[in-house]
Predict the structure of YceI-like domain-containing protein.
Amino acid sequence: MKNKIIIFAILLFSANAFAQKNGLEINGWTNVNTFKCSHPRFKNSGSVYSFTGNQLPNISVSVDDFDCRNKMMTNDFRKVLQSDHYPNLNIRFLEFKKSNSNKFEAVVEVKMMTVARKYSIEFSLYNNSLVGNKRLRFSDFKIVPPKKMGGMVYVKDELDLVFSLETKD
């Protein structure tokens, strides 16, 4: 029950933050603090997505365009995802269906570096945008979460992929 409340709060916050716009964030935790890495270029892309027929979205974004609002954190994020060798993060919709009036279910493939994983994600319709959130793990993509200061500060394995996609009516 607690997890559902947290997910609902994240979706509600994300829906308000991304209202009628595209948005892509990766949120995570360290043993000391939290971090949020957003993708301003995707947010300002002006893209509008269609979820009808068999032409589902295939989104590719540059890892170097993520901004964690802290230069050192941004550089560490890009280094962990090896942006010099794997410049893009890819999100491909494989299935999409309506489950009730404002809820949708999708199967999405997320590819980081050389690893692609499929996830079921629930989306909510809010102001002509589909808002979704999925808890992932660095280890899902064979990434060891980074440590600093001899392991005194470490990034937890879990992270949230939060996104909003402006849709056509």
In short: The beta strands are 23-30, 34-38, 58-62, 88-100, 103-112, 115-126, 129-137, 147-148, 153-166. The domain at 2-166 is CATH 2.40.128.110 (Lipocalin).
